[in-house]
Every structure is written in structure tokens, then in C-alpha cells.
Protein 1
Amino acid sequence: MRMTVAQALVKFLDRQYVAFDGVENKFVDGIFTIFGHGIAVGLGQALDENPGGLKIYQGRNEQGMCHAATAFAKQHNRRKIIACASSVGPGAANMVTAAATATVNNIPLLLFPADTFASRQPDPVLQQLECSDSLAVTTNDAFKPVCKYWDRIVRPEQLMSAMISAMRILTDPAETGAVCISLCQDTEGESFDFPDYFFQKRVHKITRPLAVEEELDEVATLIMTAKNPLVIAGGGVKYSEAGETLENFCAEFAIPFGETQAGKSACVSSHPMCLGGIGVTGTLAANNLAEKADLVIAVGTRLGDFATSSKSQFQNPQIRFVTINNNRFHAGKMDAVMALGDAKVTLLALSEKLRGKNYKSDWGAEIPQAKSAWDAEMKRLAAYSYGQGFEPSVKDMDPRSIEEFRKLTGGEMTQTAAICAVRECIEADDIIITAGGSLPSCLQRMWTTDKRGGYHAEYGYSCMGYEVAAALGVKMAEPEHEVYSFVGDAAFQMMHGEIMTAVQERLKINILVFDNCGFGCINNLQMTHGVGSLATEYRYRDGRNKPDGAMIPVDYAQVAKGYGLKTYTARTIEELKAALIDAKKQSASVLIDLKVLPKTMTDGYNSWWNVGIATSSQKPEVLAACERVMEGRKKARLY
């Protein structure tokens, strides 16, 4: 079948399917693109002539559209994707951050950045990055370290093996991530006699590998000897759709579980064994029990530093680790005894072994007591408000910035009370999105949902700017549900162009901008480690060396009005609740500008985070912070 490379690519993508647990679905929904000269008359021509069943989506920023595609795939539990295509040069480079975000989070993301001419005859072509040490190097080589598979198409026949390899990675639960297929712009238009069988319907089977018997026996033996085991539920539980299986496992054997950011909402929050988030952004309940645990059962998690409090959360001298993971690299962390396999079937097999031994943990009343103490703390956080005797919830903070912000904006809400108000007002099965900053910290601790997949966080790469674009991707995946993006003012300023794509697609998203006049999370990090407020608050430059003048107010509602959104400004809890109730009545996208007092987020809860700290300083505050960090490092497990 004679056709161009671009035409063959479109036809191939339209014929890809996945099968999981006997259910078959079309894998590639469509293509997100910003047409530049590198693809407009190559891939663009193919999509214009015959897109088949593929939908074409128009992005506003290459990184933003890739974030939307990542969120779409994540919300579909990695079984449906939207490919992303860009022009050569800056358009391609804009996708690199999104590629890293997808790879770190093990989410399939298929990228088609245009490249320079394979013939090299027009060099330097418009937007070409010239490397004097090698003419073979282009901007697209920057994708290599952030992708799970990378290829460059310089001849038409290369497309076949490249795309089959791409699908191998994209549909592999253990190895999935970003895939970059770099398209030389002259090659896109070259014709070739592609064999018919290249375009046959391909069904990629996503299987459930079971850990081998020897591994199951070893893990079961360790659990049998544990008095106080604790489960960490990671993203692998969600993608395996093993939430109910894990709930039953923990209920039967009286084992409590904490959640990572990726794993939250794989299980229902109301489950009696659920302790909520664990680690640096964990709850008091999870972190207190983690300190006593003698065995950690890590299911489908990368065991990042936040989940383990930089390897310091588990203080029992007899602590051991076991992992259930389909990725050997992640399964082998923390000197763990591993069961290499799918979360669901491996938990079921493990349950059979423990059931035969009549195993039950010794936690007893400690689990409901820990949960009850956290419930009391949640009530305090909901009631935390500005007034007489008010103090910052983040420790050792100067309250002057709070007073300045209050006088400047009229805002009197605390961040924790605002989150509780949102949970009270929106529906039980609505979906929330969050990413970088202090909001993921508060939400992992405070948010509760019994909707599986109702909590959508990107925290593996902690990529600010993901939030608004991800709201679009999640809404595309589940249009029947209301979607709420929790985004800080700093992240909103970084990237919000996909609002226009939501308008274009007539998809309603609800954007909640938590405005505290700066990068509040990092400002806290600075100041709690003895550093001054350096370029993390939004302030005019009045001094010579740094912007340290008055705060700069921003009206985010006015920004959104320019896109045609229904907007609200909330300075009090009453105004926020009224805005949320009215927003439900709207059929188009809305934005609520929340004026939230700085330094009023959650903090601590018996966790520690290892940071690079100055070991020499003229400031006593820095030296005191350094001493605290060194004490924390003594408690962390060394590797």
C-alpha cells in the first residue's frame, strides 16, 4: 500500500487496541497538536486527508497539551492515550518537561516531535539547533534521558519497527512512560510501499503476571512473623484496579494501610484500615503507626522520599520491607524481599497463604485510636480561622506577611478551612486534580473520597503547571463527572493556556486558584531552614539585590474572564461556599479566585524531609536548621 510516512503513521495508530481482563478498547483516542512548519504539511496533511477514527485536538502550549494527554491516560488507568505532535525546535523542546513527568509517573505518553531534514540539504532549517560537534544531534536528542523509548525516522521503512517498539513500551505496565518518535520533516512526506499487514488490527494484551511460588512463600513467611505490619498503597494498586482486593486483604488480616500520592483513591477513604497519606505529606495516623511498624508491605510504589520521609519514617529496629511490584527496579528498593507481579493477583495469592495459617496482626485497638486522633485534627483544621489569637500553622513563621496579604486582598480564609469547605460543597464522586506546591501536601492528608480515581495527583515529578491542563485531560476521560483543579497562584501563572482548549471542546472544568501571593510551599522551606524570604513571594523590587518591597496583588478572576469563564472571588469561607454552589449550576468552565492567607497550610505530623542544607553560615538560624537536618539524617536508613 503506497502512502507517505505520515499517512502510514496515522493509519497505524488508528488500528491499535488493548485488552485487559477480557475487555478490549481502542488504544489511541486521537492526536493533540500545535501545527508548526515541521508537521503542518507532513503529519498535518495526513490527518486532514484521512484521520480515520482519530480525533484532532488543538493545544495551546506543547507542554500543556502533553500534560492533558498524560492526565487522560492516567485517568484511563493507562489503557487509552492521546498522542502529541509538535513542530521542530522550540515546539519539540517544550514537550521535554512533560515527557519527564510521564516517565517518572509511569504513564504512557506518545510524542511525535518534528525534526530537521534527513537529507540535511536545507540546513540550518528554520528552528534548527546546530551542534558543531555533530550534525546528527538535534533538539530531539534532549528526549533521550526522559523517555522509555526513543527513535528517529530518517527512512520510510524505519517507521514499522519503530512503531511496534513504541507500542511495546506504551502497553507494558512495568516499563511504560514517554515514547518519542522523532519525525524528520522531509521523511514525513516520502512515499513507500508499506505492507498491508503493518496496518492489521493489533490487540496488545495487558496481562497480570503472578509472582513465582518461591517469592510468595518468602513474603508470606515474613508477614507471618510480623506483629505490626503496614501496607503502603502506591499507584500500581490503582492501575491494576486492585483497590478492593487490597481493602479485603487489609481487613482480613487487620493490617492498616497508608497511601502515596499516586495510590490515593485506589482504595476508598472510608475503609476502616485506611490511614490516609503517609510520609512527608502524611497524616498523624499513618506516620505514628509507621514509626512502630515492624514490616512494610509496599504495593505498587516507587518508595520515593516523600512516602518514606527520606527513609526515616520507619523507626522500629526490627523493620523489614517486602514489595509487590511488576517492575524489578522498583521492587528491589529498600533491601526489600520482592514479589514480582501484578498487584491484584499477587495479593490474592498471598491472601490464600496467610489464610491457611490463620494470620492476624497484633495492632488491635491502635488502628481505630490513630484514626480517631486524626479525625479530631481534621475538625481543628476545618475550624482554623483568622481572629483573636491567630497564629501561622506553619511553625516559626513571621506573621507580618499574613497581615500584609489580608490588608491587600481582604482575604481571611485559611488554606485548610478552604479545602474542608470545598469537600463539604462538591459532590462525593467529583474528581480533584493537584500537582506541585503546598496543595498536594494538604490534600494528601485532608482529602477523602470513596470514588476510585477521584483523587488525581501528579507528584512523582511535582510539576507545577500540570494542574489546569490535567483538569482538561481528566474531563476528556470522564466527561460525566465534575472536575476540580486545585492550583496555586504560582502554578496558575506558569501555565493555564489549555483553558482555551477546554472552551473550544465545550468541556466544563472548575479551576480553584489558591492565591497566597507567591510560591508559598518553597517560601516555607526557606524560612523554616533559616533562609530569608528570597524571591518566593510576589513583591516589587524596592531594594537593590532582591525583590523585597510590597506584595503585588493579582486578580485571577479577571484573567479567566478574558477566556470567557464564569468567575468568582472568594475572600471568606462563606463567599467560597456560595461560589461553589453557584458554580455547580454553570454549564461552562468556571474559575474561583480564593484569597487564602499565607502560612495556613498543614505542617509536619511526625515526618522529616532530607534537604541540602548549608553547613557553614553567619546566620544562627541556618546553623540551627543544619543541626536539625543532621539529626534527621542519623535516623534515616543508609543506602
Note: The mean pLDDT is 96.
Protein 2
Amino acid sequence: MLENIINIVYNIYMNDKIKDKLKVLTTKPGVYIMRDNQGNVIYVGKAKNLKNRVSQYFRNSPKPSKVQAMVDNVDTFDYFITMSEMDALALESNLIKKYQPFYNILLKDGKQFPYIKIDMKVPFPKLEIVRKVKKDGAKYFGPYFAGIDVREIVKTINSAFKIRTCSLNITETSMAKRECLNYSLGLCSAPCTKKISRADYLKEIDRVINFLNGNDDEIEQILTKKMMQASESENYENAILFRDRLKMIDKLKQRVVANLPKDVSKDIFAYYTDGLSGVITYMVVRGGKILGIISYPCHDAELEEGQTLFNFVVQYYQNLLVPNEIVLSHDIEDKELLKTALGKNVNIITNPHGINKKLLDMALVNSKEYLNKFLEKEKLKYNNTIGALKSLQEKLGLKELPLRMECYDISNISGTNKVCSMVVFKNGEASKKDYRKFKIKSVKGSNDFASLAEALTRRLKRLQEQNGESFKEKPSLIIIDGGKGQVSTCYKILQEFNLAGSIEMIGLAKRIEEVFFPNNPIPKILKAGSAELKLIQRIRDEAHRFAITYHRNLRTQKQTKTVLDEIKGIGPKKRDALLKAFGTSEAIAKASLDILETVPGITPALAGEIKEFFSKNKIEHSPEE
């Protein structure tokens, strides 16, 4: 009850703050942008009528939990008027990609499933595995995912039908010198040497297309016959190969949907939400078979669940081939707009019956199951990140929640190649783009205290100057890999920069995992196995790994460096070629110009540079080699 009263009061406050903008809102189509009190974009939406849609968010009426969560964080909004709803859809898509708001669905561009492509415009087509569908007139089959390996399907086809796999540009008049090994193995019909006519080759392609469209009987018969022949001739290796290909066919047959025509291609989208979190499950049906099913967790602050599904589908088909039919679990406001956005007059079904209803029910079951597992995973993630941070703050008595932690560690061998790592955790998770490494310059010998002081001084100076993306943000907590000595040294650096009051610091000693504080000789012992201890152990171990990796790389570079690297025009490849040809720098120095020019990549001008370099420097031998 109290929570509802607080929400009502807060919404009244929000309306008072933005009511002027609501009053002047137009009824035209457009895009609106919700911002928090820091000015960050947290949601982008489109509307056929801006005034009606935006006003809905700020009315004191019950809303889904996910919508209320977004509204609670809105401080103001902006909007753009467009000529049409289609223009609004395009602008919304661009703004979502630009700002990546938390409360919008945002599919990663990299998630592109594989297709089998057959380009029928070339005289002798072949099978290609591609991840981008183009409007190039070629035939595309797929997408394949969730347990179906497209490479295995291609291998299965090549085992049954004599389709070329080479990259030769074969025309009706071109002629290769000889056939490849695949022809000898009976895996290719050798169109390159005209062992098969174009007409007969295209008949073979038609058989492949027939299989990819869902007809398995012919390929199964061919592979079974080949397996038996190989077995009878005691070629058991090939027999096993054909047997494995038959298993792939059987795997595909197990995905056949009963009573579904083989020439139907359809996609099913099921959206399930508990009011706060949601999951959209995508199922692809091709050639009468379920080729794949996958689920995506989603945050979306749309007022209608159908609109959430609409937004998802529009984004999804930016990477995929649009089928003949799309089955949706929720009704959508404008089917024609969706068809226009997809660029195809697709049959959109929102109230399915019969087999479509069964497929949708299957997708919904997957959505519910996935959401339960996802929420468990999110709970575990929260406990190991934000939950662990809150516990760390409480156990160590920190002034603020350490949302940005930085950990420093030194690595060297007997004082050589000294380096320091800076590892950053944000919100309890590694932020690898913010990692930085320092090559220690001013410290002689093995002195970890002085090395840490140098690295921290350089880091804090960059903070002061606001120089460098990872250095601009101030850490909440600095963790030093070491005990009270290291912490005391580094704390003095904080004091020199007048940051001791705003940045907290601890040290984590490895022996019994003691936590040390500045100016306090008594360490704190965190409970073994606790989330807060595991968190600071993770960042400490990551800093150690990062420092050692950088140190090893420096050492390797030093070991492989030779005097040849000092010669202008000599890179790693030419250096290696010279050493392979002559063995040592001494031999290279003694070689004549004519002999140097015989080394691959060494031109007469470069040979002259090499001779001149050795003459000037009088180098007879390189001790690094």
C-alpha cells in the first residue's frame, strides 16, 4: 500500500515537471526519447500519435512493472516529428542503435545465423555457407542453428551428389588442365574439364535443392547404397563416413512437423513475460522441419506486449531471410506497417489454429522455461556482482558502493622488464576495455614499492589532466596486490594528489588473504568463500594475470630483437628471411650485394641499405641471436 502511494506521489511530481512538454505535444507521428536525471537516454519509442502515446506513460494508472520501472527513472523527454509512421520506425531504429537504451530491445548485429547459398546465375553453381542474405537473385536455405551444423549438411550433400567445391571460375568454354582429387574420389563430376554438361550438372543441383526443400528420401537412398558398397568392398573407413552422414539425415527427419507441407517456410515468435522480465522465443520451420529454436531475454518498456514483439521482429529480420509466414503470439497494431518494414508481403498470423497453434505453444513452453533459468542466472550474477559489492561495502566499512574498482600488480624477473597492470571492474564485472598497463621507467632493480608508486602517480596524473578514456573516471576503490607496506606507499601517492578523502584504498595479501587499510597495521579477515572475498580475489587474480602476460610479451620481444631491426626497411618477415638464409648477423654483414639480393623481399636498394648499415656501425656479430 505504502509503495503504491509513493508511486502516485512520484508520478504527480513527474507530471508537474514535464506537463509543459506534454501540453505542446503534437498528434503527428514521430519518435520520443526518455532521459534520466543524468541526461542519459534510457528509452526510445515511436508513435503514430505522439501526444496520445507519450501521455500514457505519465498518467496515474496501473502499468506493467517493466514500464513503471522505466517511468520511475524518467526525468524529461525529447521528441522528433516525422512525415510518416514508417519514417518514425526508421528513425527509432537508428536512435536505438546509437544510444543503446537499457529499456529497449537491442539485438547484437553479430548474431547472424548461417545459410546455404546457391547462385543460379553462374554456369556451374556450388554450395556456399554465408551469414548475410543479399538480394542478389541467389537461392538461400536456412537459417541453421540450435543443434544443426550447416557444415555437416554441406558435407552430407557433397557425399551424395557430385557438386563441385572448388573456387574456379568455370564457364561453358573454360577448360582446366586436369581434374582434382574429388573427381577421383567420386565426389565431383568435374565440370572444369567438361566431364559433365551444364544441363546435366544443373539436374544434379536440382536434386540438391529438392533435398534442401525437405525431401530426404533420395539422398538417404543414395548414401545407404554407397555405404553398403563401401562395406562390401571392405572400405570400412568410407562406410563409417556414409553411416555418419545418414545419422545427419536421420537427425533432420526427427525434426519433421507432422501434417505440414514441405513447401511451407514459416517463423514463429512467442513472447512471455512475468511483468518485469521477458523472453522472446524464435522458431524457424523450413521444408516441413524445425531447423532451430532459440530464446532471447529482453527488456522493453512498451505499453503493449504486441508492440514489444513488433520491435523485436523488425530488428531480427535485418539479418535474416523473411519467410512466407510469420506466426506471432500477440496481436500487433499495424500488420501492414510490419510488412512494409520487412519489405515483403508476408502472411502475418496472430491468432493461430491447428498446426500453427501447436508450434506456437511449443515456442511458449520454451519461453517460460528459458525465463525461469534466466532469472536464476541473473540472481546468481547479481549475488556475485552488485550483491557482493554491497556486502564488501558493509564488511569493510567503505563510504560508498565501489562501483568502479581498480587493482594494481607488479611483474618482473630480477628487476628486468618491470611492468604494472591496472585492471578495472565496473559494477562487479571485468571491464576489459578499461584495462591499462604501465612499463616502469624510473625504478632501478627489483623494487615493487617504488614501481607501484610510479604507476599510480602516472595514473592519477592522467585523472587530474582528464587524459585518456580509461583514466578520466575516478575509481571508488583502489586495490593493491600486497600487504601493509605496499598500501602505505600507494596511500602516500593518493595524499599527494589530495584524493585520500575521495578514493578509498585496500591491499589484499596473498598468504592468508588479509585485507589491509592505510595507516592501520591490523588487517581485516573476510569470511572464506564469501561473495565479497571472491570478488576482490577475482580482480586481484586478474591483475596478476594481466601483469604477467604483459611482462612475458616484453621479454619475448626483447629476446627476438636483433640488430637487423635497426635497419630501415627491414620488418619481421624480411629479418626472418635474412636469418634463415645466412644464420647470423655476422654472415649477413659479410655477404655481397648480389648474394643479399637473392633473399626473398630484398631489393637492390634494400641490399645497399643493409651493407651501408653494417659498414657504418661495424657490427660483426649480434649477441641476441
Note: The mean pLDDT is 85.
Protein 3
Amino acid sequence: MNLAQGAFAGGQWIWIAGFAVGCLLASRRLIHWFQLESYQFPGYFRTIRRQGGKAWLPGGILFAGTLAGALLLLWAGNLSAGGALPVLCGILSALLPALIGLLLWKSARRQPEKKKLAFTPRVKRLIVISLLVWILLLWGWSALAGIVFPAEKQPALNLAARTAFALLLPLWMALGGLIAWPVEKGISEMYFRDAQRILREHPDLIRIGITGSWGKTSVKFILGTLLSERFPTLVTPASFNTPMGVTKVIRTQLEPGHRVFVAEMGARHVGDIREMCRLVHPEIGILTSVGPQHLDTFHTQERVTRTKYELMEAIPGDGSCFFADDGGIVFGLWEKTDKPKTLAGMNAERDDVWAEELRVSPEGSRFLLCTREEKIPCETALLGELNIRNIVLSAAVCRKLGMTGKEIARGIRNLQPVEHRLELKRNPGGITVLDDAFNSNIRGAEQAFRTLRGFPGKRIVVTPGMVELGDMEIDMNREFGRKMADCCDEAILVGRKRSEAISEGLREAGFPADQIHPVGTLAEAAELLKTAASPGDTILFENDLPDNYSEE
């Protein structure tokens, strides 16, 4: 057996290491999806099912490329029984899978990504652990292949059996994540306890928790702006709403001078909010909304409701609970709460804090902020009734903390639109853009549609619809289309398969079929807008899908 064959023989660690590196490099997209799904296995496997071609193709390419190249090198090495050629072929055989993997890595990196793969310490640990695990697996896999197909007798079958390891890359990545999980759990708990210690060293810090199916990020930033008129306030940035995200903020940003800490609390599973409260121990809880979000993990609305209410269950008896009056689920939770509580909304008859005389224009909004004691004239650049409801809810908390009407009104006037949440943008070409791309739910979308209706010129909606709604997704997107129909003149639907239900809803509501334009990607939508939109028109971008939901 010459060295070209020997490179694939059992115990050839150089080839095993090279092939493991090739597998890792070919798995870039899998690593990215795992990160986008917050390293949760159910979400990762749902993405694998949804993106089957992208998931399995890199491993297939690595298998086919390595096998074909290795067979060629094996043939070349057999041309000479001695000399340098067999040695060179053996070296190239070991390097080949890594080279193919590198090409696959570069190809995946060149694909457009809305949220880039971040090489965090956790990703780096996942890569190292996966590589070590795969090397051990490949050793066993190669040994088994050598028994079934001895290299001396069946070199081609031996090569095929060994390189077939690459065909199961999505499963090997999951295995690497599973083995890394105890390590990550231990590290997370260490940081978690350190953040708890830091909070204990700030006994006078006012701690506020915010949760809801939607609106929590907007309320967080609104509340942070208002509170800053009086208090040094730390607000968790962007969408930092997981235990580890909030832990990082506490450990790196909380300072002795802060008087208020506002933590957004996200959830995708029952118990997630309870875990957040174990960290923050909030004395003030804010519930913005409860609705059909993340049903692919919660499965039922009742589980969503129970999880969101975990925040109010964690508020101490002398704390305060604030509820957005939705006239539905949240209102029902307010009714059953026996702790100090406040209801905020647009209903003067039952709310403790409310808004009235609301006037919305493309320039912003004006309204009266009302309590039983006073009415405060307010103005803001924020658009839409939903934003006003968020402001009223935030103002209710500020009143509880002793802020004056003047301070609150000044804070409301200083509010800036939250990025990608019904953000008004003036295009130099005379086209107005309403950017509501961060997220979408049926209630928020309806508010965005109402806002769009008040703008002049042709009105165009660009949307992929809604996701993570489980079995309700098709029906909800059909309803989404029906609600869109009377607010726009053209609909550009991103994702031809996903948007079929939206198209059905639009047509059911009488929307002209020739004004419905399904496209494959957001880039295609942008190209279409170059000819569809003119100066004076308004474009609403409603929702944007993460990379793991792309159909292209």
C-alpha cells in the first residue's frame, strides 16, 4: 500500500484532522443558524427542515469533491511505486478536504446576511469543541470503514465510506452543540451569579422589568428617555433580553451612580421570564401585550399568557405592576392581580393613566396625557396609536416614581423613533419611508397600516408577513393580507412560498391581483421599487425575516 492509499488508512491522523477541519469550514451556515436560534436545538432543527437544501448541500459537496479528488490522487500515486509522487499525493489527499471546506466557507460568507455571524467566545468554544469531537468521531468512523472495506482490497469503497461522514454535517453540528452545552451552562451560571452579586451591591437601585409579546423594546427605550429627565438610568441596549444578554449589561455597564435599571425580558419557553426575574429581582413590572407570538415554541396562547405573567408573580407585595389596557388578555391579567397595579391606555372610563385628543400627522403626534389629577399637553415625533399607548404606559411608571408632568412632557418631546419600529425616513428623492421592519405582529401591523393610510401619494407595502406562529401562521398571514388591503396601492411580498397566504388575504379583500408582486428576496424588492415608486409616494417596510427564514 503506497502513501496515497495510506493517507486514508485507519489511524492516519493527518487526514482525519484535515477532513475534520474541512467539515468545520463547510459548516459556517450551520454555526450561524445555531447562533440565530440562541443555541436552542428545537429551533435549530426547525431551520434545518425549513432550509433543507442549504443545510445538507455543503456536506454533499465536501463528500463529492473530496472523494473525486482523492480517487484521482490515489490513481496518480499508483503510477509510481517509489519516489516523491506517492508522498506528494498523500499530502495533497490530507489537505484536499480542508481546501474544499475553505472554499465553502468563503462562499457562505459572501452570501448577504442581515445579522452577521458573530465570533463570540461561545461560538469560538463551539468551534473548538466540535472540531475535537469530530476528530474522535472520524477516527472511529474511519476504523469502521477500514474493517468493512479494507483499503488494500477496496480502496475506492474505503474512500467513499470514510468521506461519507460529511453527508451528516447538520447532525454532527448538533452533537457538538450538545457536548458543549454543559460547558456553556457552567460558564453562564458563573457569570449569572456574578451579576446577582453586583446587583446586591446596589440595594437602592430601582429595578424595572418589561415583558410582552410585542412593544417591550419600544417601551424600554421610551421609558429610559423619560426617566433620564430625572434619574441616571441604565437601559439594556438593542434587543438584549435574554438572561445572558442582561447579565452582560449588568457586569459591564452598571455603575454606582445609576439610580434606575430597566431590563427587557424576552421569552420563547415557559419559565424564561421566571429565570430573568431570578437575576434582576424587579420591584416594578410592566406588561405591554400578550398575543400569538413564538407559537412554534410555546405551542398555545395559554402558555404564552402564563409565561408573560411570571413577571407580575415575581413582583414583591410592596412593588408595582403596570399593564397596557388592551381590552383583552392583558386587561384580564390586570383584573386578577391583587398587588399594587396601574392600568394605562386610551380609555378614560377605566384607565388610571390615558391619552385623549390624539392627533397624528406625518410630522408626529399630539395628545393630552391624562390622570385623575391633571391633563398634560404632549407632542412627539413618534407615529401611530400604538406608540402613543407605549408612551402612556411609560409615563404611568414615571408618575409612580415621582416625576413631574413638566419632566414627563419634556421627555416625550425628546423621544426619537426607535430604529426599525415605525421609523419615519425622508428619502432625498422625495419618497417617504416608514420603516417598521424590526418585527411584526397582527396588532402592530394594523397600526402601521393605519398610519400609512394617512400619507399622500401612492402607498406601497413591502413585507414577508409574520413568522414563528406555529400552526396559526397561515391563517394569521391571511388575516394580515386582509388588513393590508385597504391601506396600500401596491403590495410587494418577499418570499414566494411564504407569502401565498398574504396574497390570498389580499385577494379576498378585493385587492387588485395585478398589484400584488411576489419576489424572492428583499434585494429583488428593492429593484422593483426603483420603477414602482415615484417622488411623493410612501413605502412601508413591514417586518424583515432573519437569515434562517430566507427562501433563497
Note: DSSP finds 22 helices and 15 strands in the chain.
Protein 4
Amino acid sequence: MLMKKIMSGNAAAARGLFEAGCEFVSSYPGTPSTEITEEAAKFNEIYCEWAPNEKVAMEAAFGASLAGKRSFCGMKHVGLNVAADPLFTLSYTGINAGMIITVADDPAMHSSQNEQDSRHYARAAKLPMLEPSDSQEALEFFKLAYKISEEFDTPVMLKMCTRIAHSQSLVEISERQNITPKPYEKNIAKYVMMPGNAIKRHPIVEERLKKLQAYAENSGLNKIENGEDNSIGIITSSTSYQYVKEACGNKYPVLKLGMIWPMPDNKILEFAKNVNKLVIVEELDGFIEEHCRNLGLNPDGKNLFSCLGELSQNIVAEKLGMTANKYIKLDENIPPRPPLMCSGCPHRGLFYTLNKNKCIVLGDIGCYTLGAVAPLSAIEMTLCMGASISAAHGFNKALGHEAENKTVAVIGDSTFMHSGMTGLANIAYNQSNSTVIILDNSITGMTGHQQNPTTGYNIKGDPAGKIDLEKLCRAMGINRVRVVDPYNLEECDRVLNEELAADEPSVIISRRPCALLKYVKHKPPLKIDQAKCVGCKSCMRIGCPSISMHGGKAHIDNTSCVGCGLCVQMCKFGAIGE
């Protein structure tokens, strides 16, 4: 029975997995892709898990496909970099049961450290990539992707983006398909990618790409919508298609590409013949534009639309010479709301201590990256998941004693499990005198409180295997492993200086659960004794959003204060208490 519901793109994608008979999901959380796996976990028919990182997730999904069950792995764009190793070789091996690899790009970097365009991966790996433009297409494309995967013996990449993933639209849902598992058959020539076998698989990949291109020519994924005025023809995809339709309506003909790789060359050329000027509307890189130029066309594209950030209906309307004043524009200058650590964040005391001791802090990816923001201003480098530890090792090896007694790496518990362990192994093996601080807040914080291998719970909140960070670090060859409470500034200061002074590698585990976790019990909000407050602003140095100055005196917002007590330790005049 068919039903209609309002769903986000991510929820619709998960519904597509369910309806298509997917049985195995392995992902690592990363905005804007996280909710696909969270939503899929609500279906008991699908086994779902959080993997330690994206590479592991992709390899696990391939294993399930090899075993004959339809599988899925999801990640954000930078996560695909981590999984690139299996990705390129999976193109050679092909699959058994259908396998979908979803990557979610983040134009404008709402929650990312770069703005890379994942379409290049599909072309480089010679894999098909689909790109939905709304929630209904997300559901349909995910179901279709499994058919393409099994018909052409290939993983299928499915690209989302922030707007499609998180916006909501009407979706028609149906029942789950009962898919008969494919039997596993031993095939060394297909699945063992040693050079002698791999060299024979490459021609198969090239031939498959030709067949996929023929499929793209006739597939309903790529469709032409006629317009009233052929002076301009627009080729577009994904959320850019929505902007084009909002800005132009049915004025100009549009070639909407739902299969972004390989592209339908003949359809593109035929479309271009019937318009006076060809315009490519796409976010980030000129991927479609470059392909059109390789076909001998001369479209407008990045000469009109920036390769930076997101597009909008207003930008599209302006660049196409449409009337843009019918779209709402705010005249008021909205004050910026800079990101900051929450009230009671367990990382705040540790970063204050690092700043106070003038440490060189090499940071990592997580909500603790906000330790770089004033007034703490502690973190001096953030590159990618796990890089803090590896970079600290190289930094200390390069500068020796000049750096060792003041340089630290900071990394979260989930990020440490993701890709920090290998960096720590490098320190233990090559013996740099480096201090690593693991910020253990008992959860994967930045992406919305997902479990990880150190929490003892799985994606459904059920008990699971739990990795002991102290024992793990010692087993890796680190003899000095200390645990501190980041709410205790004196303890943090003492242990930090002891470990920096030690003449061997060390790990400090700063352990306190995220203040936003539902099970965390907070103390009553603190108050300022106005008679004792001298307005010295010492309490402001920890950057707590609950503390502000009014009339020259400190003020604590009792609706957000969690009573962590850091400010009490900052005040020399005893002006703060319960």
C-alpha cells in the first residue's frame, strides 16, 4: 500500500534502503550523511553499525555484499578520502549482491574543514554516481542504485549534499522488497586483486563504463524538460536543479542529470543543438562544464557561478538575468553567532590549562576544535582525522627538546579510534618525546551523540564491546598514561606539566562525559555575589557562554549554567557560589 509522508532527504534515503531489501549498513558518522544510518537503524530488518572509520565501513559493506546481502556504507565527503583505498579497488573486483556507497558533500562548509567535490571520485574510480535533487528522488535513486549495481556488477556511488540531506519534501513510500540473497561463490580471479588478476580486471572496468554510458543515454535518471524560450538551455543537477526551477520556472529548457557519472554524451549534444546558449548551473567545481567542453561545446558556467560555497535561487536568477526581487532578501544585518563550546563542556578546563601554559597545541576534528576560538585560542593546527598525533610526532622530531616540553596533540575518543591509534603507534615505535591528550567525553559529540568503540554501546544503545583506552595505550607501548578530570584545573595543570617534563612519550586522558548527554546529572546553577565581584573579568577567560558582564559586574545565566565550577576556580575573590 502506497503512503505519502514528509521526509528529509536522509530519512528518505534510509527508507529507500529498507524498501530495496538492504540487509547490512556500516558507516561512520559525518554531517551531513549521519542521519541515513541513524534512520536505517530504526528498521529491524536491517543490521546497522557504526564502524571505527569510513575505510572499515566500506570494507565491511563489501564483505556483506560478497556474502550475498545488499549492503550500504555512508560517509561525508572527507570521509571518502579515508575510504579511497578500498573504493578504487572495489571498482575492479565488482560486487556480488548490490552495494551502495553514499557520500554527502558540504558546500559552504557548514560542518567541514574543506569544500571538496566528490564527483571527481566517481570519474577517477570509474564508478557510476547518482545524484538526487529532493527526498522523493533520494528514495527512488537508492532503490534503483541496487538494480544498477547488480546489473553492471559494480558498487554504485550516490551523492547527497547538505541541502538535499536535510531539507524535507513529500515522499511516496511502499513496502519492503523480499530479495533472495545471492549465493557466495569462490572466484579468486575476480576478488583477489594481486597484480596478475588486477591487470585482467581493468579491461572489464573500461568495458563496464561504456555500458554504463549507454545506460545513461536512455535512463530516466537524465531527463529533458522543455521550456518556453530556447535562447538559453540549462544543464544542472542536485540542489542546483531546484534553484533553477525556483528562479526560472518553465522559461528555459533544462537537462537534469540524475546520473552524474558517466554522463549521457549524445543527450547532452542533442540538447545543446536545440538552444542558442548553453549554461551549466552546478555547485563547487565545473565538473559538468568540463565534460561539456571535452565534447566540443562552449557553455557558460564558472564564468557566471562561483566555485565557492552554495548557490541559491537569488544567485541563479541574477546570473541568468531573471527578476530576482520576488525572492525574499533580508535588509537587516543579522549579528553573527560564532560557534563556541557549550556551557559545562568538559573540554573547556583542559584548553584553558593549555593556553595558560602557552603550549603549542596541534588539534584534530571534533567539537573540541572550538578550542581554537577566542578567548581560549589554544589550538594552532587542525588538518584531518587523526592528524594531531602524527603531526605532533613530526613537529617534535623536527625541533627536538625545543618543542617537546611545550607541544601536545589533542584528539577526541571517537577520533582516536577512527585514525589516532596509528599515529600513537608511530610515536611508540619511533620514540618521539610527545604528549598526547585524549579528550574522552564518552560519545561522538560533534555529529550528534553517536556511540563509538569506547562507549560500550552499539548504534541501538544496546550493550556492546568496550575498548579500554588506558589499557589500549599501554598495550601500544606507552608507559605513562594519566587520567584527569578537566573540571579540576589544579589537577590538569599539575599533570600536564609533569608529562611535558617527562623524557618519554605519554598520554593524558581528559575524562568527563559531554555536558549535553541526557544521563549527565548537573549541579545547580552558580550565582555571582555582586558585593564581592570586583569586575576583574577573570571568569570571562574560560569563554563560558553562561557568563557575561553587566554594569561592570559578572553575571551568570541560570538557565544555561550547569554548575561545572570552573569559574569558581577562576575567581580570586570568592564571588561565585551556589
Note: The two ends are 59 Å apart (CA to CA).
